[in-house]
């Protein structure tokens, strides 16, 4: 059916038709006529006889003509055609269709079947519900045929009302419109297409090729040429076509001339929004502005081909457009346009990718910078604190450990600062529009980071210096305490000894105390040196405090003994020494006086005592012996009495010495064994 309809679409131009394809081509006459119509060339004169040999001759002439067009006819012979072999006849017709209807189709460096498929894909590309991938199932819903018609003649079909789920209506609509308005006969049956799992590819290709030729303008040019009846009308129409071509070519070239600079403009935008607007403008250009120009270009080529065909059919010279307005010139200009368009699209996409990368980097920079700035907030003030000036040694050590932890934290943030600098560098290399503010912020972060490093080092040095000073002071405090305590005990013992009340009874005892006191006095210079050394330790602490401006948080933690107390006690010791000297001197003088009294008493007692003893013995003997008369004895006793009475002053004197000894509280006397009693 399809092949019969296709053959009739050409044979009717010669005023004839066929009904049965295998019967009507048996004599070769209509076959030769068909080839003349579709090729536009004259074949050899046919044989008019009715005999089999005449028919074979005519068919051979047709096959020879086909072969002369570069077609290899495999296993197709004139005898089979004359005999009405359906398979061979249909194969021959398909070969003719391929050669004269499909082979010459050329679209973007593809030809024949691939070219026809590509043409269909290009023409139906704007229709989202149409996806032409082959010449069988892609056409079952009928939307492909409707899309081809609507693309070229949108007034013939209301495409918006078509539904993909109603293929029968779609197919019949396309077939009816094509037959009525495009002079394309019905070659396919809608119900057969729908009812077949895989429609016949050759039938679809044959029918679609009619669309291609109908819309490409070649067939229209031939049909229009056949309608020309009068030379004047042809000339006028040709002149009008020439003017239209010239105007259309001028307008199209002018549009290309204006458009190419826009497409070659590579001025970058700073923001993604601006680039998206450029991309949207480019899409509008492709969707709204370019399609009419594509139509104009196609129409221009159609008009040119139509004009040339008309001129050729009228035996008129070929049309030569003005210089620079040849079809080749327009194609070259159009090629330049599409090249610029391709370059512009690539540039747009690259720029958008670049800006996306820039936006991503800029956001990453802002996030990292914000995190870093949040972390550094208050760190400079913290590092500039002078809290170590009033801290104790233990507090300084705690501050040092805390500072070491901060240094570790600071080192851990080094990577983030390097990342921030690297991102800023990349933003500069990618020509980020806001690079000045990024650089300023990055520079501020880097400067602050350097300052933090310097402050960190400065604080560490200050802490270590303060720790060393406080350790030195602590050692001095400890040494001071170790030496001040025994020295203080010594002074307290010395004060106690110097103020101790001594009780002596002999000159030897006072001499012993005096000797001990002199020995104590001999130790005073060394003690004073020790005192000076102890005070020197304290003075060294004071000197360190004054020299290095150390604010001492408290007193010596190892002792409560102050230099003032040491000086006070030392001064007291110095005052007690001369007092002790005086007391010992006075006691020594008293003991000397006592010794004189002892010696004086002893000397007298050692005389008086024996005298009394002697007299007692003499009186005792007198009373025992009783020699002489009583008067003699009495006289003798009276003489003793007189001598004893005369001795009495010495005893009284001894009594006076004894009284002095008692008053002097002398209780022993080594110079005599006699006591007053």
UniProtKB/TrEMBL annotation:
Keyword check for Coiled coil: yes
Molecular function GO terms recorded: actin binding
Keywords for the protein's UniProt record, in alphabetical order: Actin-binding, Coiled coil, Repeat
Parts forming coiled coils: 231-258, 396-430
Claim: Metal-binding is one of the keywords in the record: no
Gene3D superfamilies: 1.20.58.60, Calponin-like domain
Classification via InterPro entries: Actinin_actin-bd_CS (IPR001589), CH_dom (IPR001715), CH_dom_sf (IPR036872), Spectrin/alpha-actinin (IPR018159), Spectrin_repeat (IPR002017)
Protein name: Alpha-actinin-1
Entries under SUPFAM superfamilies matching the protein: Calponin-homology domain, CH-domain (SSF47576), Spectrin repeat (SSF46966)
Span of domain Calponin-homology (CH): 1-101, 110-216
Superkingdom in the source lineage: Eukaryota
Record-linked PANTHER family: SPECTRIN/FILAMIN RELATED CYTOSKELETAL PROTEIN (PTHR11915)
SMART domains, sorted: CH, SPEC
